[in-house]
């Protein structure tokens, strides 16, 4: 039976319907992929702190939690001698001609390492933090820390993304109380630390390139090529200790640690050199400092 | 490093600075602070597996045959903030037999 125009039209219309249905189905099925899992954005400091609240870990991991509480990771925005790190930077560098208390996220490139959770906060959170800094509100600034969930979730996976509501550890514990624990081999790899402890210039922001720590770069390009084989964790988290020395506020401890890391030899040779026209009494002092560290000293 | 006469008078002083040194990559002046540094221009810091050796000649004034040599190694993250690491004191004499 020959095809008529009406049949062709009907066939075309039917095809359009099928195409439309298929398209709709494709869109519905692909919606989770297309939309992705956009992280929830906190609009206040308290909301953001709550998103990364690790205080419940203390119930079962008390010793580790107490070690961490004494570490610099528990106070990444408070420097040596209880000084707030970024207040002067904010006033003099980031916003010298604009109200510092209206800072936005892009004014804080340092947060990439000192407070990576800001990724899940809006500019309003940055403004709130800026006002706390300007007002000398250390109580608020002290609440901003590199807690358990930063290393054991946010930074624990680099091949892909960490799963929400999963804590990463050294083994799988699917029935772990509160949330499942999944193994991430990164936790014992220096790259975990290297994500923040620096390769060199950070050029994420055209307005504010920065360079803070270069420690990991030194580890990769000086220590490893020279035959080093230890990880950051093996030296700075012996036995899983989350205190992670050095502590720059414990002056005697830091001096002792540097003394052990940098043994020195001193030799002296007193003698008289006989030049053609004169005698030159002198002491030749030879010093030799050897480093046992896995990176340059000093660095950060 | 200092050298002094036996009665404490300083006769010589020198120092070495071990640190990585950065510019802002727009000039040759060394800069400080994470907001200024970009890259490195020189690195005299103490490197892993690369001992830092110095040989310093301390001239002795005429007539002085004894001296006290003091070698100090310190960490100074900020002006006035000094963490002592090593202090080595040696008494030397041109009259030592070798």
Walk me through what this model shows.
The complex is a heterodimer of chains A (300) and B (98). Chain A is 37% helix and 9% strand. By secondary structure, chain A is of the alpha+beta class. In chain A, strands 1-2 form a two-stranded parallel ribbon. In chain A, strands 3-4 form a two-stranded antiparallel sheet. The longest helix of chain A is centred in the first third of the chain and has 31 residues, at 5-35. The termini of chain A are far apart. Chain B is an all-beta fold and 98 residues long. Chain B contains no helices and 7 strands. Chain B has a 4-stranded antiparallel β-sheet, with no helix packed on it. Chain B has a two-stranded antiparallel sheet with strand order 3-4. The mean pLDDT of chain B is 95. Chains A and B meet through α4, α10, α12, β3 and β4 of A and β5, β6 and β7 of B.
Number of strand elements of chain A? 4
What structural category do the secondary elements of chain A indicate?
alpha+beta
Q: Strand order within the widest sheet of chain A? A: 1-2
Largest sheet of chain A: 2 strands, parallel
Q: What's the overall geometry of chain A?
A: globular
- Give Rg of chain B in angstroms: 18 Å
User: Mean pLDDT across all residues of chain A, rounded?
Assistant: 88
Q: Distance N terminus to C terminus of chain B?
A: 24 Å
**Main pleated sheet of chain B:** 4 strands, antiparallel
Strand content of chain B: over 45%
- Pair with the biggest interface: A-B, 51 and 52 residues
Q: Calculate the terminal CA-CA distance of chain A, rounded to whole Å.
A: 84 Å
Question: Could you outline the blueprint of secondary structure elements for this entry?
Answer:
The complex is a heterodimer of chains A (about 300) and B (about 100).
Chain A: H1 5-35, H2 45-51, H3 62-69, H4 87-94, H5 111-114, H6 123-134, H7 138-142, H8 148-154, E1 167-169, E2 181-183, H9 190-194, H10 215-223, H11 232-236, H12 251-261, E3 264-274, E4 279-289
Parallel strand pairs in A: 1-2
Antiparallel strand pairs in A: 3-4
Chain B: E1 2-4, E2 10-13, E3 20-21, E4 42-43, E5 52-59, E6 66-78, E7 81-93
Antiparallel strand pairs in B: 1-2, 1-6, 3-4, 6-7
